[in-house]
Amino acid sequence: MMKAIWYEKFGPAAEVLQYGDRAIPRPGHGDVLVQLECSAPNPSDVKKRAGSSPDLLSAGAVIPHSDGAGRIVEVGTGVSAARVGERVWVYQAQFQRQQGTAAQFVALPSERAVWLPDTADFATGACMGIPAMTAHRCVFADGPVDGQVILITGGAGRVGYYAVQWARMAGAMVIATASDEAGQHDCMLAGADVVINHRDDDFVEQVRELAPDGLVDRVIDVDFGKNLPRNLELLGTGGVISTYASGSIQEPVLPFYQMMYRDLTVRFVIVYDMPEEAKDEAIEDITESLEQGHLLHRIAHRFPLAETARSHELVEQAGFRGCVVVDCAR
Questions:
Q1: Grouped pLDDT means (10 residues each) for the chain, 330 residues
Q2: Which residues are 32's β-sheet partners?
Q3: Bridge partners (DSSP) listed for residue 216
Q4: Does residue 142 contact residue 278 with C-beta atoms inside 8 Å?
Q5: Among 164, 231, 309, 317, which is least packed, fewest CB within 10 Å?
Q6: Does the CA dihedral 236-239-243-247 come out positive or negative?
Q7: CA distances (Å), 6 to each of 53, 60, 68, 70, 248, in order?
Q8: Cα(181)–Cα(243) distance, integer angstroms
């Protein structure tokens, strides 16, 4: 048996998340069994627990969380036994299935368990899935960014922080937004050329003064509906908005002709449905960056497995910088 968190109905974390013993899963063909050290809840995990996917529980109880890190302790048929003992970070664990990483063990497809260099600890590994891969896709989905001007809204957030780093390493000029001094400091450490408070009344004018031609090539956006009018003022012809959230306005109205006549692209990003080729590209860059120590990471809070409900509540509340990590071994 293993210790795990699970839910059998939707609702507030403190009311529906259960902690106790569950059977250790067995790896099937093409699977690996990972003994987890860390798990990291993300907004998609807490939204699913709250009921955003109504059919999720039709197959039974769900162990939540997509991301985590640990060691492979067993392999299924079709997987090399040489992987046993390998340190890995895992992603997409609880997608279209009931098993996630909020447990001491998880069995999942071998390709979703990625080698974790010794230069990175397990807590860092648990943050590579949704935050780092989403940021990578946002930056690189529409071609090279070398020499471009990229506006990254919410640059101090979980995804934005990695997006600043990817864009800077790829040769872009990075203009990031943050609303307080601590967030601005984090963005600068991550490599932003300049950081602007998105609450400033003259925000658009500030960006135009900074961009060489007065316009930006791409926007990586944390709140699509709310920021769309302002982003349209700043994007040049052929520009791209790459977005992964729209919390303030969940069903935004698009000014179709304004966007069409400027040949704009809107790229919606979610790790679960990224093309496999894009996932492989992200994994390759993440692995190299971890080996070389090129990425900065932030762990804001850590909890023992039994206190996973508290981690969900913090993710829902937001207002902090960095990832929340659950220690599965304690």
A1: 98 98 98 98 97 95 98 98 98 96 98 97 98 98 97 96 98 96 95 96 96 96 97 97 96 96 97 97 98 96 98 92 93
A2: 75, 108
A3: 235
A4: no
A5: 317
A6: positive
A7: 16, 10, 16, 19, 29
A8: 24
Cα–Cα distance, 106 to 95 (Å, whole number): 13
3-state secondary structure 133-161: HHHHHHHHCCCCCCCCEEEECCCCCHHHH
Domain check: are 111 and 186 in the same one?
no
Residue with token string 């850590």? 302
Place of tokens 């907004």: 43
Number of domains forming the structure of the chain: 2
Q: In what order do the strands lie in the sheet with 235-243?
A: 194-196, 173-177, 149-152, 216-221, 235-243, 265-268
Give the Cα separation of 27 and 258 in Å (integer).
Answer: 52
Clarify whether residues 47 and 165 are in a common domain: no
- In tens, the pLDDT along 180-232 reads 999 999 999 999 999 999 999 999 999 999 999 999 999 999 999 999 999 99
Which residue has 């609880």 as its token pair?
94
- Domain interval for residue 108: 2-127+297-327
Q: Residue 176: inside a domain, yes or no?
A: yes
CA–CA dist 298, 119 (Å, integer): 15
Q: Which residue has the tokens 């966007």?
A: 259
**Domain annotation covers residue 251:** yes
- The predicted model scores a pTM of 0.96
| Nearest-angstrom CA–CA distance, 225 and 209 | 24
Question: Which helix (H) or strand (E) segment is 13 a member of?
Answer: helix 13-16
Q: Backbone phi, then psi, for 29, in 5-degree steps?
A: -60, 130
Q: Can you give the CATH number for the domain in which 224 is found?
A: 3.40.50.720
Q: Rounded distance, CA 266 to CA 63, Å?
A: 33
